[in-house]
TrEMBL record:
Its EC number is 2.8.1.7. InterPro entries: Aminotrans_V_dom (IPR000192), Aminotrans_V_PyrdxlP_BS (IPR020578), Cysteine_dSase (IPR016454), PyrdxlP-dep_Trfase (IPR015424), PyrdxlP-dep_Trfase_major (IPR015421), PyrdxlP-dep_Trfase_small (IPR015422). This is cysteine desulfurase. PROSITE patterns: AA_TRANSFER_CLASS_5. Residues 4-365 form the Aminotransferase class V domain. Keywords: Iron, Iron-sulfur, Metal-binding, Pyridoxal phosphate, Transferase.
Length: 380
């Protein structure tokens, strides 16, 4: 695990999460919708998990809808709002640097007669709120902008966007998959109507997540069948996954988030200082002042990112060249293209390093030393 630096793609399970899931799998096998004792016990565990998660956001328990992860949450929010407000308007706004779960959903809605504005970002990958203000129209019904970018770690101006939308009827959705558990998020204070989260980014299990939906937001169900989740998401709940997710959330207290921030900031400085001291030519892709310290997107001029990934993999170290959901493609990062242009060499010479649970200072220095050797072999 010490050589794993791709926590932006997925994270290892905490031992406590595994223990909790084993308990549910062996002791609480009832269906939460059943009215007998086994079902009631399962329903109680389900609601306890919902309470833990709602408390982490300062929202009402019933405003949490359990899903299969970030992609379902994004799809449910975006398609649901768009279709529910079709008569009021068919204009949607997002950014050019969103996760594919948002971008591909927007592309789908364009085939359904909706118009989508994709806001640009600057060379630091940052969104200008003034661009959003100019793009807003009377027929804009949804604004979907990620909380933190999965490739650069940039924190987008969510608070300012929420303030802007207070005077506009558009629904505000944010994909918070990369930000949740790393920064304090208070949807009601920020003016967020819908918020998507995935458990496997916070040392929880894969295949489970949740969608926060404010009481004021109209959102039809995309899945139809039973009456689970107050008729908002049909299907028997994944109780072991949900309880595992809640256990992971329980460890992400404000104090822990603050401690993690300091630790990963230290890791980043250790690594980049070692690169600089060794004479490596490098640059940061992102906004130094407004980003998560967990994620470093580094450009090494003249060095193929595929080559670095392969050679580090042979050394037992895992990094990435972008989002795991697009890593199987040969296409360059759409995020870096939005920042530097489609033909920029930066897209072929940049890697993403993402710190997380299990990483140590010793392992970070080992990664830095390996990078120094591999990069200087090419740059010299």
């Amino acid at each position: 695990m010490n050589g794993y630096f791709d926590h932006g793609a997925t994270t290892p399970l905490r031992p406590e999460v595994i223990t909790e899931m084993q308990r549910i799998l062996t002791e609480v096998f009832g269906n939460p919708s059943s009215i007998h004792g086994y079902g009631r016990q399962a329903a109680m565990e389900l609601e306890l998990a919902r309470d833990v998660i709602s408390h982490s956001l300062g929202v009402k328990s019933h405003e949490i809808i359990f899903t299969s992860g970030g992609t379902e949450g994004d799809n449910t929010a975006i398609i649901g709002v768009a279709e529910a407000h079709r008569q009021q308007g068919r204009h949607l706004i997002t950014t050019a640097i969103e996760h594919p779960a948002v971008l591909e959903t927007m592309h789908y809605l364009e085939t359904r007669g909706f118009e989508v504005t994709y806001l640009p970002v600057d060379e630091k990958g940052q969104l200008q709120v003034s661009d959003l203000a100019q793009a807003l129209r009377p027929d804009t019904t949804l604004v979907s902008i990620m909380y933190a970018n999965n490739e650069t770690g940039n924190l987008l101006p969510i608070s300012e966007i929420g303030q802007l939308l207070k005077d506009h009827p558009a629904v505000f959705h944010t994909d918070a998959v990369q930000a949740y558990g790393k920064v304090a998020i208070a949807p009601k204070e920020l003016g967020i109507d819908l918020l998507s989260v995935s458990a496997h980014k916070i040392n929880g299990p894969k295949g489970v997540g949740f969608l926060y939906k404010s009481d004021q937001t109209m959102l039809p169900a995309l899945l139809h069948g039973g009456e689970q989740e107050e008729k908002r998401r049909a299907g028997t709940e994944n109780l072991p996954g949900i309880c595992g997710m809640a256990k992971a959330v329980s460890y992400l207290t404000p104090a822990v988030q603050e401690e993690n921030w300091a630790t990963y900031d230290h890791f980043g400085k250790l690594l980049t200082n070692r690169l600089t001291e060794a004479g490596v030519k490098w640059a940061l892709n992102g906004d130094f002042e407004h980003k998560l310290p967990q994620t470093l997107n580094l450009h090494f001029p003249g060095v193929s990112n595929d080559l670095l990934l392969m050679k580090l993999d042979l050394l037992g170290m895992a990094i990435s060249t972008g989002s795991a959901c697009t890593a199987g493609n040969v296409e360059p990062s759409h995020v870096l293209e939005a920042m530097h242009g489609e033909k920029s060499q930066v897209t072929k010479e940049s890697i993403r390093i993402s710190f997380g649970y299990g990483n140590t200072e010793e392992a970070v220095l080992e990664l830095a030393d390996n990078l120094v050797k591999l990069v200087l072999d090419v740059q010299n």
